[in-house]
C-alpha cells in the first residue's frame, strides 16, 4: 500500500485556548504528547513541555493517530471511522483478517474485551497457547485499550463503552497458565502471585494491603479501584522510593555512586539538565534540583547559569551528559518544541560534539568520555516528531543498533526492494535491490537471508511468486507463479535446487525433460 506522504504536508491552524468543543479538557500525559480530540477528528493537540496547544486540520482532512498528522478524509490513513472508535459493537463488513490484509499496520480494538486488541503488524504466530487469532494481543494488567488513541493506557483514562472491563488480573489471558504449560515453574509462580494479588484487591477497598505469597516472602500491593497497582516499593528499605533509587533492571533510573569520584554528578538516568546527585565514598548522599534557570555544572560547582552565557554570549559549551548536544550562547530561542533551554542545540545525525574543538564532527573523530554516545537516529531530539505534519522518525531513520555493517532489513519496508545500510550500528542510508537480469524480474530484500532475492523466492503473502517444492516430486516443474512458458524450477527432496529459463525457442516440457522445442503454428495456406 503506497504511503500518501503528501498528506502530512497540510498546514494545521492554531485555535485559541478556550475553543475546546464540549466539556473536554486536554491533558498532556508527557511533555511532548500528540493526541486527537475524542469526538472531533479535525482537532488535535500538540503538547510543549506539558502545555497543550489546540490545532485544527485543514478543510476535508482529519487527524490520523497512526501517522500521526492531518490526512485526507477517507484516505488509507484515515483512522477516524467508527471501526476504530469506541462504538465497537457496531457490525463491520470486514473481518480482522481482511482488514489486516488491507492495512498491515492497523491496530483494531477488540469488539467485546476492553483489555484486548488486534495488532496487524504482529508477527504471525504459528501456534499460541493463549490466542486462537494470530493478530490478537492484550494490554499488560491493569491497563486497558484506548479505542481512540489505539494504544494501551492506564485504566482510569480509558472509556470502555460496551466492551467488558475486567478488574481481576486472572481475567487477563496472558496471566493464566494453559493446561499444557501448568507444570512450568515460572508460569505457576507468576500465576499464583498475580491471582492472589488480584483476589485480594477485588475484595478490598483502595489502599495498601500486604499479601502473603509464600512462607518466606511478603508482597506489598496497592489496591486502587479494585485493581492491583504496581508501586515502586523497595524491598531493601521497606518503603516507597523515587525512580532515581530503583535499580534499572527493575524499571528505575538508579543514580549509582559506585566507582565515582566524590562530588556532584549529572543525571545519567533521565538526562534532566537541572538535576544532579552527590557522592561520598562511593555512596549516594543526595539527589537535588538546581534553582530555577540553572543547570548542572561540574563536580565542585553543581549548578551554573545555562552555558555561562551571561558571562560570554558567544560561548559554545558541551552538554554534560549527551555527546551529540551542546549549548550555543549566540542562539536564543523564545520558544522551542524540542529543548527547554533556549541555548541548547544538537549536531546533525550521526555527528557528535567534539568537546576540544567545540564543534560537531564525524562520530569516528570524537572522544565522548563520560558523555552518552547515541547511535540511533531517533535518539537525536531534533529527529523526533514533536509537532504535526512530520514523517515519523523510525521511517526516516531505521534503527541499526546491534546490526552488522552493510545491507540490513528496514523493518518499516520489509519485503520490498528497499533496505537499510548500516555502519557502526548507525543508519548510513537506504539501498534498493536491482532487477534480476538473468530471470528478468524484480528483486525484494529478504529479511530471512538478509540479501536481495527474485520474486520467485518471495512468499506469495508478501507480494512474490514463490516457487515452492514442498510435496513435489524430484525433477523439473513449470512456473506456477507468473506462468512464463519458458521458465521452470527444479526440486530435490522437497527443496528447490534452481530456477532457470529454457534456451530461446524452447518451452517447459516435463519432469525429466525440462525444455522442448516450442510448437510452431503455420499460417493457413
From TrEMBL:
Pfam families: CBM_14 (PF01607). One of its GO terms (molecular function) is chitin binding. SUPFAM superfamilies: Invertebrate chitin-binding proteins. Residues 25-82, 97-162, 306-370 form the Chitin-binding type-2 domain. Residues 1-17 form the signal peptide. Coiled coil: none annotated. InterPro entries: Chitin-bd_dom, Chitin-bd_dom_sf, Chitin_bind-dev_reg. The keyword Repeat applies. Keywords: Chitin-binding, Disulfide bond, Glycoprotein, Repeat, Signal. The keyword Repeat applies. This is Chitin-binding type-2 domain-containing protein. It comes from Batillaria attramentaria. The lineage of its organism: Eukaryota, Metazoa, Spiralia, Lophotrochozoa, Mollusca.
Amino acid at each position: 500500500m503506497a504511503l500518501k506522504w503528501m498528506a502530512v504536508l497540510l498546514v494545521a491552524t492554531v485555535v485559541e485556548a478556550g475553543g475546546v468543543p464540549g466539556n473536554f479538557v486536554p491533558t498532556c500525559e508527557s511533555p511532548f504528547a500528540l493526541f486527537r480530540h475524542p469526538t472531533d477528528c479535525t482537532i488535535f493537540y500538540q503538547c510543549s513541555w506539558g502545555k497543550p496547544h489546540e490545532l485544527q486540520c485543514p478543510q476535508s482532512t482529519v487527524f490520523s493517530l497512526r501517522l500521526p498528522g492531518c490526512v485526507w478524509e477517507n484516505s488509507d490513513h484515515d483512522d477516524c471511522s467508527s471501526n476504530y472508535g469506541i462504538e465497537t459493537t457496531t457490525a463491520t463488513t470486514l473481518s480482522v483478517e481482511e482488514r489486516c490484509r488491507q492495512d498491515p499496520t492497523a491496530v483494531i480494538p477488540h469488539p467485546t474485551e476492553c483489555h484486548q486488541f488486534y495488532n496487524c503488524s504482529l508477527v504471525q504466530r504459528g501456534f499460541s497457547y493463549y490466542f486462537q487469532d494470530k493478530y490478537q494481543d492484550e494490554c499488560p494488567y491493569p491497563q486497558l485499550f484506548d479505542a481512540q488513541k489505539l494504544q494501551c493506557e492506564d485504566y482510569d483514562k480509558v472509556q470502555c463503552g460496551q466492551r467488558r472491563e475486567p478488574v481481576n488480573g486472572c481475567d487477563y489471558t496472558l496471566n493464566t497458565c494453559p493446561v499444557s504449560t501448568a507444570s512450568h515453574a515460572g508460569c505457576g509462580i507468576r500465576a499464583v502471585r498475580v491471582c492472589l494479588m488480584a483476589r485480594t484487591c477485588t475484595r478490598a477497598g483502595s489502599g495498601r494491603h500486604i499479601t502473603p505469597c509464600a512462607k518466606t516472602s511478603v508482597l506489598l500491593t496497592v489496591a486502587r479501584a479494585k485493581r492491583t497497582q504496581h508501586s515502586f516499593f523497595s524491598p531493601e528499605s521497606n518503603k516507597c522510593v523515587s525512580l532515581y533509587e530503583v535499580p534499572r533492571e527493575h524499571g528505575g533510573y538508579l543514580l549509582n555512586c559506585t566507582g565515582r569520584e566524590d562530588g556532584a554528578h549529572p543525571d545519567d538516568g533521565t538526562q534532566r539538565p537541572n538535576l544532579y546527585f552527590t557522592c561520598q565514598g562511593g555512596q549516594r548522599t543526595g539527589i537535588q534540583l538546581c534553582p530555577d534557570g540553572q543547570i548542572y555544572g561540574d563536580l565542585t560547582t553543581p549548578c551554573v547559569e545555562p552555558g555561562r552565557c551571561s558571562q560570554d554570549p558567544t560561548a559554545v559549551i558541551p552538554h554534560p551528559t549527551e555527546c551529540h548536544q551542546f549549548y550555543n550562547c549566540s542562539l536564543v530561542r523564545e520558544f522551542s518544541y524540542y529543548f527547554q533551554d533556549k541555548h541548547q542545540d544538537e549536531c546533525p545525525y550521526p555527528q557528535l560534539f567534539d568537546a576540544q574543538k567545540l564543534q560537531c564532527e564525524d562520530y569516528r573523530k570524537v572522544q565522548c568520555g563520560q558523555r552518552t554516545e547515541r547511535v540511533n537516529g531517533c535518539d537525536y531530539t531534533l529527529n523526533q516528531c514533536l509537532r504535526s505534519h512530520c514523517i515519523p522518525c523510525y521511517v526516516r531513520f531505521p534503527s541499526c543498533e546491534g546490526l552488522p555493517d552493510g545491507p540490513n532489513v528496514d523493518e518499516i519496508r520489509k519485503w520490498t526492494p528497499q533496505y537499510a545500510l548500516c555502519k557502526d550500528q548507525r543508519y548510513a542510508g537506504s539501498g534498493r535491490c536491482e532487477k534480476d537480469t538473468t530471470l528478468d524480474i524484480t528483486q525484494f530484500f529478504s529479511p530471512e537471508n538478509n540479501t536481495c532475492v527474485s520474486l520467485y523466492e518471495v512468499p506469495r503473502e508478501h507480494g512474490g511468486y514463490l516457487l515452492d517444492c514442498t510435496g513435489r516430486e524430484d525433477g523439473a516443474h513449470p512456473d506456477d507463479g507468473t506462468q512464463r512458458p519458458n521458465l521452470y524450477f527444479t526440486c530435490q527432496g522437497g527443496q528447490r535446487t534452481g530456477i532457470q529459463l529454457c534456451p530461446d525457442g524452447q518451452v517447459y516440457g516435463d519432469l525429466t525433460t525440462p525444455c522442448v522445442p516450442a510448437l510452431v503454428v503455420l499460417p493457413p495456406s
